[in-house]
Amino acid sequence: MTGTTPRPTPYGDPSAGRFPARREPAADATEPHVIGVHLYLEDAEGRVLLGLRHPDSAYAGRTWHFLAGHCEREPALGCLVREAREEAGLVIDPSDAEYAHAVHLLDGPAAPPRVQLVFRVRRWRGTPRVREPDKCLAALVAAGEPARSARPVRPGRRRRHPRRPALHGDGLVNALTTDQSQPGGTARERHREPLDVHLILRRETAGRPEVLMSRRAGPVYAAGLWHLPSGHLDGPHEDVVTALVREAREETGVTLDPADVRAAVTVHHRGPGGRSRTGLFLEVRRWRGEPRIAEPELCDAMRWVPLDALPAATVAYCRAGLDAYAAGARLAVHFQRPGDTIAHDPVADRLRLVPAVGADPAASPPEPSVREFAERAVGRIGGWTDVGWARRDSRVWRADGAHGGTWYVKVHQNDRFHVREVRAYRTWATALGAAAPRLVAPDPALRAVVVTAVPGRPLHGAVLSVAEGRAVFRRLGTLTRLIHDSAPARPAPAGTTPETARADRHLTEARAHLAPGDEEFVRELLDRDAVLPPPPWVETHGDLQPRNVLRAEDGTLALIDFERAAPGPAVRDLVRLGDAWAGRPDLHEAYFDGYGRQPTAAEERRLETDSALDAVSGIRFGIAHGDPELVERGRRTLARLRAGATGRTVPQRRPPTSATGPATLRTTRLPDRDRQGKETP
Fold first, then answer.
1. Which residues, at least 6 apart from 642, have a Cβ–Cβ distance to it below 8 Å?
2. Counting beta carbons within 10 angstroms of the beta carbon of residue 463, is it exposed (0 to 12), middle (13 to 18) or buried (19 or more)?
3. Residues whose CB is less than 8 angstroms from the CB of residue 499 and which lie 6 or more positions away in sequence, other chains included
4. How far is CA 45 from CA 118, 170, 253, in A?
5. Predicted confidence (pLDDT) per residue in 388-410, tens digit
6. Rounded CA gap, 375 and 352, in Å?
7. In a 3-state reduction of DSSP, which class is residue 502?
8. CA angle, corner 633, sides to 616 and 673, nearest 5?
9. Residue 17 neighbours by CB distance under 10 Å
10. How confident is the model at residue 116 (pLDDT cuts 50, 70, 90)?
């Protein structure tokens, strides 16, 4: 492949022969690097926490600095959590750390080379305070450049603190007092580890990306396994880009222009033997020359492989980097455990992806326990997208597999909903075939499920032609009938008339938001149903409404969200559809044409009562949770039901039971109303 003509760059001349002669180091003679972390702790107002280094500090005394430290044979995220606790008394969840960037530092001949990983954290527990007074005198939070306005401490006056800025509100404090109860920090030897560069030489073939891989051979680590062209930095004179260009020429014979090198992903790795290292995976899509085996004593095969079909016998470290790269991650942790194999083992996959700063908030994953459960069920997840409804109790994520495939992960708000949904998937949902997801795995302790994805978009808000609307509701009627016929109908259990006590509570809570006459109407319906025989019970979806119906591009339908599924009267599944076909008798007709029969008179009466109770419940819930759509739907349903009941006869409310027994049930004629809803004589 031919690239642009190489040009002089700060990284050196990429042409052959211009690099320092390669040394043949002995085993583990690679220049060790200090791996450090910087914590960009940011509050809701965009302010960041800084500490003023003591003037006697060995490095950068009398300057402001982020919380920072060096890894001590631990993952970078582990170092981050430890340093935040040790320096400021804060507790941080590693899943809240967002990766910002990495910096490769070559300070000078006397200083060891370093790699600094910078993270941003915007959630923590605890109040920041100075816990290492021999290293940090005070701390502040500011949005601009606080070091210019802060007063540095004079050398030699160790116990005098700079004047503290004023406190701001109840968020993150701007001034912190020294925690004298904590002993001063002790000097630690800085952990050092090798720094690797890995070449992702990428080409596109028929829309399918491929990367160049080689098989290790001879007296090398991981002989017989596939790996990317890679190597160590030769010494403190060499930066990572120069090292990559050199390794590419020495191993594959291709010439890279440093300007074509792109940062892909950084992997903090620990092998099964317990030794850690940091690998920088760098992407290149342009080069000069044809790749070939340039070191036959170290490599016995080389070929292009699809990025989504990597060889099974791949070094686990390399596989982790490529999987993270394919998932679009910028930072990953891959700490293997004693007993793990050098080769990739999908059963012992230790890759953890760290979200990047500025990532879409919708991509925020669930808590670690739920992520681990999902990945045990379907393999590594490359991306998470929050697809729950805008309600605090809706917790649903789309999980995109690192190697393809899509699933949905749901965490239920209570045990009852979890049991109902799992039962539905294991019983009547199978009767729907491709018109319902499949249950992949449940976890009762987490109240979580993983289910397959089905195509389509919610019917809620869809714009359909008249013909499309009829076809949709006819098919919806057919699917509903499949649910209801999945088990024989049975008599309703005793005491299954509408729950008067709950209805009383909902009416009381919604009263201020009901129209005049709404409460009396609902109570009259409750009195009527108290003396009617209940309809038989069947399996029901329990929340059949347009938002839980998916319509694919080819017009096929699928049903989702079974957490309210439970046996009940068949009309339970018509309650929330009534609003969808209001004013459209053709949709009502199409639905029951697909269902195969019309509701009985007893079912019609029960549907009217259940719809009224659901409307009141929706108004109450919508007011309490700030959901105006639910409130409006409830009010609209009550108005529709009252309009439909005009001129019909329903029972009057029963007066209290007297000493001589209950009063006789009487009936009354509901008043007629004109088009504006006003009562007429």
1. 517, 518, 521, 670, 673
2. exposed
3. none
4. 20, 12, 52
5. 875 556 789 999 887 789 999 99
6. 11
7. helix
8. 80
9. 7
10. confident
How far is it, in rounded angstroms, from Cα 364 to Cα 284?
Answer: 29
Per-residue model confidence as pLDDT tens digits over 61-93: 677 888 888 887 778 888 888 888 888 888 888
Beta strands in 217-306 (DSSP E): 226-227, 230-232, 262-270, 276-284, 299-306
User: Is the torsion defined by CA of 279, 283, 288, 290 positive or negative?
Assistant: positive
Tokens of 389: 């409804």
Compare 145 and 224 and report the one with higher pLDDT.
224
* Dihedral of the alpha carbons of 436, 440, 443, 446, in degrees to the nearest 10: -70
Give buried/exposed letters for 294-305 (b at 16+ CB in 10 A, else e): beeebbeebeee
> Does the pLDDT of residue 657 top 50, yes or no?
no
Amino acid identity, position 308 = D
Q: What is the pLDDT of residue 313?
A: 94
187-197 pLDDT, tens digit each: 456 678 889 99
Token digits of residue 550? 């998916």
For tokens 């109840």, the residue is 170
Determine the pLDDT at residue 227: 97
Residue with tokens 């449940």: 442
Q: Model confidence at 159, in pLDDT bands (50, 70, 90)? A: very low
Q: Where are any strands of DSSP class E within 330-392?
A: 331-335, 351-354, 381-386
Residue type, 580: A
Structure tokens at 344: 């990739």
Contacts of residue 294, defined as CB under 8 A and 6 or more positions apart, other chains included, come to: 249, 250, 251, 252, 253
As a whole number, the mean pLDDT across the chain is 79
Integer angstrom CA distances of residue 53 from 59, 87, 135: 9, 12, 6
The pLDDT tens digits of the residues spanning 354-375 come to: 878 766 665 678 888 999 999 9
624 vs 644: CA distance, rounded Å: 29
Tallying the residues shown for the chain, one arrives at: 681
**288 vs 274: CA distance, rounded Å:** 39
- Spatial distance between the Cα atoms of 454 and 479, rounded to a whole number of angstroms: 15
| 3-state secondary structure string across 140-184 | EEECCCHHHHCCCCCCCCCCCCCCCCCCCCCCCCCECCECCCCCC
